[in-house]
Amino acid sequence: MAAFSSDGSSERDIELDTAALRVLAHPLRLNVLTLLRERGPSTATRVAEELGINPGAASYHLRRLASGGLIVDEPGRGTGRERWWKSVHRQSIHDPAAAPDEQREAGRAYTQAVAVAAADRLRRAAQEVALLPQEWLDATAYSDFLLHLTPDDVDRMRTEIFEVVCRYRHGASEAPEGSAPVVLQVQAFPVPGAALSPAGEA
Question: 34 lies in a domain?
Fold first, then answer.
């Protein structure tokens, strides 16, 4: 399985190291980073308004992201009291299957945070369904499928899906006319409780 945070507008992807995984093991912090990647540079005040949190919390999470090398000051903007921040990378990538042993714990916490942040984004999208233009509603998909698969089956399917997604990725400057930023969530996980060891077993 791979956990990917959302796509954005800068030019590079980053393979997360242990330190970055620990910084991003927080759903709200992931949402702050996602906002900068989707909407461009912003301030703590603007981030707070968008995410419905207080400016102090937004400022704290921005500083933590900066300490992990994930965001930087936007040159030439802001004042002594107001800093503008921008994402350094287009996308954060972590593949637990390829991660070294020392990343396992941090990678698990990050993956959990990604899942929580994705659920929050889905909740916010659901609140806007009634307001969507019909052409976007017609193209929108909220689907799930019950499959009986092995871990290897899931890994192969995930790889095939990601290959399709890559064919549709455009930079912001290459986006076709009439396009809008679209979030495609790819989630493949065992039915809750189905893959856990029975109580008392390792």
Answer: yes
How far is residue 119's CA from residue 97's CA, in Å, rounded to a whole number? Answer: 23
Residue 183 in any domain: the answer is no
Phi then psi for residue 93, to 5 deg, are -125, 135
> Of 6, 13, 74, which Cα lies nearest the Cα of 35?
6
| pLDDT (tens digit per residue) in 102-140 | 899 999 999 999 999 999 999 999 999 999 999 999 999
Q: Is residue 36 part of a domain?
A: yes
Task: Return the CATH number at 69.
Answer: 1.10.10.10
DSSP bridge partners of 94? 3
Number of domains in the chain: 1
pLDDT, greater one: 116 or 81: 116
d(CA 110, CA 106): 6
Q: Is the pLDDT of residue 11 over 70?
A: no
99 and 107 in contact (C-beta within 8 Å)? yes
Half-sphere exposure in the Cβ direction for 174 (13 Å, CA) = 8
Q: How many CB atoms lie within 10 A of CB 200?
A: 5
DSSP 47: H
Q: What's the pLDDT score for residue 165?
A: 92
Structural domain including 118 reads: 3-130
Side-chain-facing half-sphere of 192: CA atoms under 13 Å? 0
Asked if the structure places residue 139 within a domain, the reply is no
